[in-house]
């Protein structure tokens, strides 16, 4: 192998890697490119050093690779760097990793809610067994709507936010049990289904969607993301794969706790919608469109930032120097 020929063929890639290594921050796309170039340059350096370890090309490439390695393993300085990494890499990557778990929880929750509504509405004796006609009528014609007007908007918004954030964090933290999350999904889906059946029983199906959809779309999305995160921890515990169970579990837990922190912010925005937009007199298009836009924004955010970060080998986990060392063992 001729080092000069290798240098001629890859000089442009080495120069690009050197420029990226000098930047303080990298976008997700630049991070993906940086990691690819770093790996390729490391292989080139290894090949050159086997035949000409003291050559000028070897020394030059060694400096580039060393500077790139320092950039790759460095910890962002200051709160600004840490926040930038959290919101552009850690959080979206952790969210994107949950996409298939989210699809499962979404199908399970929505499917069970719809089936419960249809079953309770069409099966004679189900709704009367739950409450007498007067109580059901009061719920459909007054209580369901007045729930959104009982408190001042700001008080209602904060109350909804803290309640939902607390539920989300519980589902993430206790997700290792698996059963806790599944039980929570079933209870909430059945409650939504029964409420819908009662509203339709008294021809208030329009009010049901009118008041529940504006905030319900982003709120349920946030709760289902928390459920997906909790179930991923459970799967990591039950099926660790080739890794030590404690190693896989620790990595998944660190990543999903990142999701829990992000959900606090997302559910705060959802709470503002429920406190100020849902009970407002705004047109339905604006009321429902606000919730849809917020939900679409979280999906777009996870895909735009999370997919390239994940492809670059980054994730919601902390860096290896903070996470500790993996232990090689022959048993679990």
TrEMBL record:
Its keywords, alphabetically, are: Membrane, Transmembrane, Transmembrane helix
Q: What domain of life does the native source organism fall in?
A: Bacteria
InterPro entries hit by this protein? SpoIIM-like
Key word Transmembrane helix present: yes
Transmembrane domains' residue ranges: 100-121, 155-173, 180-200, 220-241, 253-273, 285-305
Question: Which PANTHER family would you find in this protein's record?
Answer: SLR1478 PROTEIN
Question: What is the name listed in the Swiss-Prot or TrEMBL entry for this protein?
Answer: Stage II sporulation protein M
């Amino acid at each position: 192998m001729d080092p000069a020929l290798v240098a001629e063929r890859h000089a442009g890639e080495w120069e690009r890697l050197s420029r990226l290594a000098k930047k303080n921050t990298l976008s997700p796309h630049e991070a993906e490119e940086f990691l690819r170039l770093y790996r390729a340059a490391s292989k080139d350096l290894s090949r050159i050093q086997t035949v000409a370890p003291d050559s000028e090309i070897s020394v030059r490439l060694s400096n580039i690779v060393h500077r790139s390695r320092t950039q790759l393993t460095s910890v962002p300085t200051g709160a600004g760097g840490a926040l930038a990494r959290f919101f552009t890499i850690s959080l979206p990557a952790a969210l994107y990793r949950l996409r298939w778990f989210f699809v499962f929880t979404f199908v399970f929750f929505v499917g069970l809610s719809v089936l419960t509504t249809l079953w309770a509405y069409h099966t004679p004796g189900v709704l009367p067994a739950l409450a007498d006609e007067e109580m059901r009528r009061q719920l459909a014609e007054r209580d369901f709507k007045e729930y959104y007007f009982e408190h001042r908007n700001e008080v209602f918004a904060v109350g909804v936010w803290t309640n939902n954030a607390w539920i989300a964090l519980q589902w993430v933290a206790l997700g290792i049990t698996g059963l806790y999350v599944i039980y929570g999904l079933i209870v909430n889906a059945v409650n939504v289904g029964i409420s819908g059946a009662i509203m339709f029983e008294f021809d208030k199906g329009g009010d049901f969607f009118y008041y529940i959809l504006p905030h319900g779309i982003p709120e349920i999305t946030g709760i289902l993301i928390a459920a997906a995160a909790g179930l991923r921890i459970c799967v990591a515990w039950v099926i660790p794969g080739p890794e030590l169970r404690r190693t896989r579990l620790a990595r998944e837990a660190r990543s999903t706790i990142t999701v829990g922190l992000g959900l606090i912010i997302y559910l705060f925005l959802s709470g503002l919608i429920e406190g100020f937009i849902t009970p407002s007199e705004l047109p339905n298009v604006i009321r429902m469109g606000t919730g849809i836009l917020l939900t679409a924004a979280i999906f777009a955010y996870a895909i735009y930032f999370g997919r390239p970060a994940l492809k670059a080998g980054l994730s919601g986990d902390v860096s290896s120097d903070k996470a500790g060392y993996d232990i090689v063992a022959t048993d679990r």
